[in-house]
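re the bet — no i am not wrong, look at it urself. input seq straight from the record:
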Amino acid sequence: MRNKKVIHLIFAVLLIPLTVIFYGCGKEKKQESKSLTVVSWGGVFQDAQREAFFKPFAEKFGVEVKEESYSGEYARIEAMVNAKDVKWDVIEVESNFLLSATKKGLLEPMDYKVIDKSKLIETAIHPNGVATIVWATVLAWNKDRLPKGVPPPSSWKDFWDVNKYPGLRGLRKTPRVSLEMALLVDGVTPDKLYPIDVERALKKLDEIKPHISWWTSGADSQQKLVSECVLTNIWNGRAWATLQDGKPVDMTLNQGFLDYDWWVVPKGAKNKKLAMKFIDFASNPEGQIAIANKFGYGPPNKTAFRLMDNKTRKYMPSDPNNLPMLIRFDAQWWAENEAWITEKWNEWLLK
C-alpha cells in the first residue's frame, strides 16, 4: 500500500514538467504570425512595391509576404468582414473606400503606437488609414501641338480657351473633377467649390463639349495626350510616365486636385499586429522615393524630399512647395452625393 502511494507521488511529480511543457507549447502557438497578405493594384505598380516594400520588409522581420492583386472590388472586402472570414491583412484603397468603410465599421483603427505618424505629412494620417501615395488630377499638354509663340497653359481657364489653344481636350468621362474644373473657370474660388452647383458646372461644360475627347483609363489618357489632344486632364503619375518616355509633353500642378491612396487593415484581419509594422515600414522615405521616381506619385513621408533631386520634386504633389497650389478633392462629399450626380451627368452626356 505504501509502495503504491510512493508510486503515485512519483507519477504526480513527473506530470508537473509535462504540464508546464504542454502549456508552454500552447503559448508558442499563439505567438505573432510570420506571414502577411498584402493586396494592391497589380501590374508594374505592384512590381515596384514588391522591390520597395514587400521584399525589404520580409527580409528585415523574417516573415513571408504573400501578395494578391485586385481592381478595387471593395464589395469583396465588405463581404469578407461581414462573414468574419478575412483573407487579407493590408490593402491599398482609394479615399472614397476609406471613408465609406470607416462609416460602416469595416476597418481596424491604425495603431499609432506602432506607426510613427510624426514622419508623415498631416493630411496623410487618418484614424483608419495611412496614405501610401499622394496624387493629383492635373493639366497636361502636348508641346508640339501648342500654337507657335503661345505660352504653355497654366490653369483650367486655359483649358476652356479654345481660341488660344485650338484642338481637342482630353477629359475623363466622369463628373468627378470635371465639375470642379468647370466651376473654377466660372469664377468659384477653391474654398467654395463644395457643395457643387451641378447645374452651373454642366452649363459651363457645354462651352467646350464639342472639343472634348473622352478618356476612361490612365493608359487612354496618355495615348490621347501623345497622339490626339492638345490639352488633357490626367493623373499626374500618367503625365510623369509619358514625360519619362521622352514624349513632348509637360504639365502644371497649379489647380490640380489632390487625393491619396491609403493602406488599410480590414476588420478582423488575422495578422493585425504585423500589418501595423508593415504600414510603419512602408512609411519610411527610401521605399516611397523609389515609387515616386518611377511613377511620379508624391511620397507622404516628410523627409523624403530631402533625398530627391529638384527636377523630380518639381512634379511631386506632396512637395511642400507644390501643396499650396493644389486643391483638396472632397472624397467625403462625393461619397455622399455621387449616385444622384452620376444620373444627371449621364443625362447631360446624351444631350
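see?? The first strand starts at residue 35 and ends at 40. told u. also The domain at 135-259+328-350 is CATH 3.40.190.10 (D-Maltodextrin-Binding Protein; domain 2). so pay up
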